[in-house]
Amino acid sequence: MKTLKKELNKILIAFFLFLMISTFLSGCLSNIFNCPEDSLKTTSCPSQKTKDKNNMLTILALALASNSDSSNGGNLEWTRLYGQKDYFYYGLDTVADSDDNVYTTGYYFPDGMTNFSTFIIKYDSSGNKIWERSLEVSNRDINAYAIAIDSKKNVYIAGDTDSIPDAYCNASYNCLFIVKFDSDGNKQWTESLYISYAKTYGRALAIDKDDNIYVAGDTNRSVDGQSNPNYNTSSLLVKYDSSGNKQWAKIIVPENNSAVATSVTTDDDGDTYITGYTSGNLDGNTMIGSVDTFFAKYNGNGEKQWTKTIGVSSTDTFGYDISIDSSKNLYILGSNDGSSMLGEKCLYKTTDFPNGIQYSKCSFVVKYDNNLNQQWSKLIARGSEQEIDAIALDNFGNIYLAGAAKSYFEGEEVPYSNKQGGVFMKLNSSGKKQWIRFIGSDNATTVGRGLYVSKNNTLYTTGITGYDWSNIYQNNYPTIEINGQNLNGIRDAFILKYK
After folding, report:
1. Which of 9, 340, 391, 455 is the one with CA 20 to 30 A from 87?
2. What is the C-alpha radius of gyration for the chain, rounded to an integer number of angstroms?
3. Going by DSSP bridges, is the β-strand pair 292-298/340-341 parallel, antiparallel, or unpaired?
């Protein structure tokens, strides 16, 4: 959902090439004006020629080194747990600015209550808390799922609500919302999208190079003249300018059942891409399974360019997240519960049933070029207790994934006895595993939910850690410590920094 395009390597290479040419010309001029007269009969002074060659080789080596992959090595720099006594805090998305300040959002609620409120918190690059904000309405829900930052370091959160301060929403229905803060945490504005009699949800957020804002989600009513006569749940994409003025809203209505957009990203040409899942035929794409992944492209005016689907017969295939690199290759993340997918088996054995019956479930990543030709696919997280929820890219095209696993993950043992650990994984641009990192403890259930790669290829991650439901039901709360941080509440949001 969060792809950064970095031109620094190109600038450095151009600079080093300039130095090489300058060195060469300087050497030639030096030969002409500084060599002894007799040596002008030859091409150059021997000593100067050797110096020029050595200088150019040195500069070339520096240029090549500057273009080498200095991407994230998976070294943990710090961990922070955020929460309060007797509360549940869920970290769902995170982002960083150009100074490597990190912002995280999600929702929270007290034990015994079912109404959710939203938090946003800022840390500096060393993990010092700078400020925290909350959005709360008594007996109402405000659920933030996504966060993004613009070129001026303003921070935006998006989600859904049945009531929010400073914007209208009918309490009997759900509205999509966006809130803008400046970098000091001062609220700038709040906007909601209320559609009469509709359940409208905001699930993902992206900002383009011109600071336009895109929110993806779903609604079950007609939108801006686009008909939805059967009130099918339909994917929704809304564009706002940086002042919160709605530019357009677009829906994709399935022939039957429902379609939900779960993620959105943009490219440098102002195009927007969404992914999600559908249980009905969509834009001329006939259903393959019982649920299929879909992804679609819009131009800056909201004109849909194409819609594609991924599916497996008689199975559920969900699309969760989408990213795009500087060459406009698309990466789709999702899950499937079938026995095979994309030419690979999606099976694992379990002893929960007689004879070690095989059960099927896995996550997948598929890479497409900008002409929608599939480049490669990879199945991961094969098992009922494994999941991958988020994807991000760095400046070198490496891929980072966030999720959870129990017992084993991609051939590595999860180091927490009988508990689910958060997992973060790096793949190279060809889909080959580079490293896996876990977070958790023997007493905690932990899930990775969001991640972001900054301009200097620092990886920030967020998620949820704390007591599982068996502890909660039994009122049994053993001590939980994660990377030197003590749990604050029943469940905390966590924020990690990797270099």
Report:
1. 391
2. 26
3. unpaired
